[in-house]
Amino acid sequence: MDPLLLSGLVAIFTIIVLFSGVSVAIGLLIVSAGFLIVFDGTRSLELMPEILFGKLDNFALLSIPMFIIMGASIASTRAGADLYEALERWLTRIPGGLVVSNLGACALFAAMSGSSPATCAAIGKMGIPEMRKRGYPDGVAAGSIAAGGTLGILIPPSVTMIVYGIATESSIGRLFLAGVLPGLMLVGLFMAWSLYSTARSGDRALLNTTSYSWREKFEILPRVVPFLLIILGVLYSMYGGIATPSETAAVGALLCMMIAMVIYKLWHPRDLWVVLRDSTKESVMILFIIAAAGVFSYMLSSLFITQSIAAWIAELDVNRWVLMGAINVFLLIAGFFLPPVAVILMAAPILLPVIVTAGFDPIWFAVVLTINMEIGLISPPVGLNLYVINGIAPDIPLKTILVGSLPYVACMVIAIILLCLFPGIATWLPDLVMGAAR
Asked: Average per-residue pLDDT in the chain?
């Protein structure tokens, strides 16, 4: 069978299996085994266990559970509330400063936790009720938190970036640095829209501010500074040549656990057990998907699907930016239905040869891909962040949350366009710190 026709069959059957309700990892294994048996015979299955476990034989994978523990220990405390309160006290004099405070808190919490749903939950529990009490529309209150939560997969440390680095054999250090400036750019775009929409509303209730004394502003800082120091310490250890990403993640996880225990009194064994239990569940889920995606990639390569698609696209007489536009549409649609980790692991083996052949930087592309995944987090039918917000504020209709998040989707599209026009936004910092990539 022609490999391109075969690739269409693989795509159709993969969509059918994944929409059947089975887990992503099991679905990938079912599709991989089925096509290997049909086209390579049953003997091809003998290699599946070796590939499955061989994909997990990577020291860099240790950073995933460590960063997840780091984020879970923070999410189990009042750190999100303290971040929110600190920024509110410092930014409250700005018209619309409360929504800006929420977005700033989302950005900082995302940098500490690396998780979008955790960011939504931690900041939303405090921010949404406070904004509604101050007179902000429900759509603004819910939409800004839903959008701010997406920053968790872009601002380092990011588990999504780690997964991309492993899938494409790219430097995790470079990927982390590549997400810094685009992440700050997105925060700036979100804040700019929030300030504009607040000023445009002309609602005096939104412009009223609460005055805080200097004493009240400074007394909250000791509860926030330790976590910010951990972020700086993790980044310095990684880029100062002191430790590898995995070692840095382990130290960061230990320090976050210690701070959670010392500052937030997270002493009870039951609380610690919940942190470790939830971290283990999420880590196993991600690692299982990585292993299954390795088998899926082997199947694609064994049947010459990956090579044929790359060669076919390379032979197309189209502008490379038209090609990039088509890739973005594909990623956007995939992000509507699948979690970011699954999309990266399934698409990266196919897309990497294509983007390299077209002359695009794989590190730059990782940022573009991640922003597409962010859009998927606040877009139906899956839209994980939308459901997290709806769980926090069940009296706000899901439609209202979605409409409130749409302007932030436009901000993300603008960010992708800016990255295409000025790729240095993503590549300048990695080249500055780690030297130009060869």
From this structure: 82
